[in-house]
Amino acid sequence: MLRNYTLKKFLGLYILILLLIPVTVIISNPKNNLGDTRSKAMDSFGLNFWPSSAIFEKGKEYTITLKTTGKQIPNSIDLVLSFNPGVVKILGTGIIPGDIYTTYHKQLLDNQKGLVGIGGTDKTVNNDIFISLKLLALNQGPANFAIDYISIPEEKISIEPPKYEVR
Predict the structure, then answer these.
(1) pLDDT grade, residue 115 (50/70/90)?
(2) Assuming Cys at both sites, which of 4, 10, 69, 74 could form a disulfide with 46, CB separation 3.0 to 4.6 Å?
(3) H or E stretch including 27?
(4) What is the CATH number of domain 45-166?
(5) Which H or E run includes 61?
(6) CA dihedral 90, 91, 97, 103 (to 10 degrees)
(7) pLDDT band (50, 70, 90) for residue 111
(8) Which of 138, 131, 147, 144 has its CA nearest to residue 56?
(9) Is cis: bond before 30, omega within 30 of 0?
(10) What band does 36 get if pLDDT is binned at 50, 70 and 90?
(11) CA–CA separation, 132 and 65 (whole Å)
(12) Strand pairing class (61-69; 45-50)
């Protein structure tokens, strides 16, 4: 009877170990094939305005920047930004290409409609600025910067809208 009990205990421990090893490997491996998105989240791409929030003084000039985040910079980006044209104005030479692409194209600036369009191709390495915009604070109110259109080859992107206001 003691021998039968010992055998059952040994088999139970053996089965428990056989079950724990694969579970431990699956949990600790960030690139598993079971739908775990930890590795994908670390490599995802994002665009953020810098500064992320600001209060601009009426009549003064400012520079805002659209920066990239994440490890997976797309090979190209085309986007259109909108803003409140009654509150801010992008200055004539105010679209400043960044350093993540060697080629920038399709520059659009319409201060009456509140639109800025730009695209970049031929990515470089270890840089993070997509574009900078020089603007003039015209009147009080929210600037309402937003990305209205974006075209990138990758599917996943996160965008953090800024909070800018003129006082």
Answers:
(1) very high
(2) 69
(3) helix 2-28
(4) 2.60.40.680
(5) strand 61-69
(6) 100
(7) very high
(8) 138
(9) no
(10) very low
(11) 4
(12) antiparallel
